[in-house]
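Protein modeling request. Please complete all fields; requests missing the sequence field cannot be processed.
Requester role: graduate student
Desired output: 3D structure, token encoding
Chains: 1
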Amino acid sequence: MTIEYKLPDLGEDIETGDVISVYVSPGDKVSEEQALMELETDKAALEIPSPADGVIKEVHVKEGETIKVGQLLVTIDDGGDGGEPDKAEANKEPEPEEKREKAEEEKEPEKEAKEEKSQEKKEAPVEDEAEEEELEAKEPEEEPEEETAEAEQSEKEPEERKAEVKEPAPDNGGAVPASPTVRRIAREMGVDIREIKGTGPGGRISEEDVKAYSGGETQKQEPDKKEPEKKPEPKETKQEGPAPIKEKGKADTDKWGRIERVEVKKVRRLTAERLSEAWKAPHVTQHDKADITEMEKLRKHYGKEVAEAGGKLTMTSIILKVIASALKTFPQFNASIDMESGEIIYKHYYNIGVAVDTDRGLLVPVIKDADEKNIEELSIDLSVLSEKARTKKISVEELQGGTFTISNLGGLGGTYFTPVVNAPEVAILGVSRSVMEPVYIDGEFQPRLMLPLSLSYDHRLIDGADAVRFVRWVVEALEEPFKLSLEG
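Delivered output (488 residues):
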């Protein structure tokens, strides 16, 4: 049976995606759940699995193409009961063309011959029909020599044209030997990877091959195109308006030097759009520091136990638990505001997002029901989701539904920063690198490990006094772990 596999529903508000890589080609055998292609949506990159075992009959999409939900991706023959009819249909495909040719050829014979043939067909048994078709196919061969000569010339002309246009890019049999990383680099540089000759084993294309091609061969081809363009280029084009953006990845220059134009990735474009929308809200940031000297001792002490359970006990996983408890104490931070209806929407679930830095941009996996999990469970969830985000295996569902966000830049450094609220949420906590500082305690300075915190909030819903109370509650929970057990 033939299966026409279409792009399934990818989640809320996702209607299109860009094809990053296609892993299969016609004739390939696939198994159920095997990845057919990689797709990048507005929220994440994900692999599209095969719906069943079978053989790929046709691939209907290509790399770089933007496709919609419901669009046909591949045709698969699963070898079921309906397999033979599919083959029969495939064999019958040329029949319409043959009938058309025969109809055109049969226009010339006399009407009497047609009538005789039609009568013979009605009277003749089914077995004689094949012989009749053979005779009919042979009859046109007795056409005048002039027509056959013209047909021969028309057949030769396409061949001559093919010889003239002969220099297409090497196809490599449809499956280009290159890793997803190399394919991504080629897309970003505006290079058709099928045009590149690989220097690796078996013709495999490397990152150096892509860079050498984009910087070498493409530039070698430019003089032929640029020389005639230099003459009509003067100042007249500048007066008409800004020069059109050239193909992505193509080298170009402005009045100061060499530049390069690269198309904005889908994730980066969506990030820019959402942050621009979020920035319309009046932002305020409250900064403070937490003394985590004692908390750090506990983290190191229980770190091995959490690692044996499959997680990693980090300061972020501890802060996750603290924030989940703080949101219950300060419900206005676990809400959103609808200015059109004039309503405040309080959320009675606590889904906390954690910003993760990936090679495709910033992604925010969401840990669901964080208030119902202990620190060990939160550590495991955080480790799993972060790895999924970095390896492009995270699902759309795992990126949705957040009510509050944590952005920890401590691993990179810095003292303070101003995070942007992830709308429709109304607050986000930024965490910077902890540093040993002298703190005056009981009449003397003592070395203490201090953690900088930055809370950005939507001032339409949250007042400054509330923000200070919220941050101080978080600071005290980190400084006095017993407070978390007592009040959380």
